[in-house]
Amino acid sequence: MSTPERPLSRTAIEVAILRALHELCDDPPRILDDPVIPLLLDGDLVQRARANPEWLLMPRLAALRSHVVLRSRYAEDCLREAVDRGVRQYVILGSGFDTFAYRQPEWAGSLRIFETDHAASQRAKLDRLRASEIPLPANLEFVAADFETSPLRDVLSAGGVDCGSPAFFSCLGVLIYLPVDAVQSIFRLVASFPKLSEIVFTFSQGSVDALAKDAAAAGEPWRGSYHPDALGAELSALGFSQVTFLSPETARELYYRDRTDSLPPPRRITIGRAVV
After folding, report:
1. Overall pTM surpassing 0.85 (yes/no)
2. Separation CA 163–CA 8 (nearest Å)
3. What's the CATH code of the domain at 241?
4. Is residue 2 in a domain?
5. 264-274, pLDDT tens digit by residue?
6. If you write DSSP's letter for every residue of 133-188 in order, what string do you get?
7. In what order do the strands lie in the sheet with 242-245?
8. Which residues contact 43 (CB under 8 A, 6 or more apart)?
9. Quick check: helix, strand or coil at residue 201?
10. What own/partner pairs with CB < 8 Å and gap ≥ 24 does 207-214 have?
């Protein structure tokens, strides 16, 4: 008996809405410039949010919006460094409504970009891209995968990823929904790639009750949390040569120093980077 296909992720839509609100409503300079994401969403939904600015100022929503745009900006900054070092493959694990491929800067032209996610989420995204008449770039491939059940190396290889060449992986807002064995499989996979490969990822240090309850109610419960010290030791043991975490102080200096609105910098370490 075949395994039922997972439905479109509700949290993927919610993350896209947060990115759109940042693009349309937060003060410049934007942490992430993303003119594409509003085009993929219901315009009425975004307009209702813009018509209620007090809602945008709610501390919980502002903190979550800040985290969502920060993690994408940081990953893309790290990706540019990897491209400068000669990496030519970008694998987005749990791509959701990520829009990098459709607004890619000139420095990304040499990349092959692989969006990896559940088939239902990919179909929904493709439908919205078509409806908005956003063309698919020539250097983009879609790879359908279930991170809990798919042999990820085989899936990526079949989708065109060269496992013998360096690759940059992003895994944002994904690990928290996976069991420990699936998380370890992802890290082992990246560690098996050649030197210069790396992964930027997000993780939770512990449950935020309201957010965890919302995710569980959406059928996407949080399933794991990690302490940076323990996670760093685990990644080093897998063979990563460099493991770093974006501290609140560094994030504030790099991305929030000139902000005039209420978008808050992070208060905890939730973004990591591991280089093979």
Report:
1. yes
2. 28
3. 3.40.50.150
4. no
5. 999 999 999 99
6. TPPPPTTEEEEE--TTTS-HHHHHHHTT--TTS--EEEE-S-GGGS-HHHHHHHHH
7. 140-144, 112-117, 89-93, 168-171, 198-202, 271-275, 242-245
8. none
9. strand
10. 210/60, 211/60, 211/64
Strand, helix or coil at 51? coil
User: Looking at residues 230-245, what average pLDDT do you find?
Assistant: 97
User: pLDDT (tens digit, 9 = 90+) per residue, 130-142?
Assistant: 999 999 999 999 9
Residue 1 inside a domain? The answer is no
Alpha-carbon distance of 102 to 89, in angstroms, equals 16
Written as six digits, the tokens of 173 are 């807002």
Number of domains in the chain: 1
Q: Strand, coil or helix: what is 259?
A: coil
- If you search the block for the tokens 């050649």, which residue do you land on? 194
In this prediction, residue 3 carries a pLDDT of 47
Q: Give a yes or no: residue 5 inside a domain.
A: no
Q: Does residue 29 have a cis bond before it (omega within 30 degrees)?
A: yes
Does residue 149 surpass a pLDDT of 90?
no
In a domain, 225, yes or no: yes
- Report how far residue 16's alpha carbon sits from residue 38's, in angstroms, rounded to the nearest whole number: 8
User: 3-class SS at 49?
Assistant: helix
Pick the closest to residue 93 from 199, 226, 166 (CA basis): 199
- Alpha carbons 147 and 173: distance in angstroms, whole number: 13
Tell me which residue range forms the domain holding 83.
10-275
Element (H, E) at 267: none
> Can you give the length of the chain in residues?
276
CA distance 147 to 134: 28
Helices and strands, number each (H, E), in the chain: 10, 7
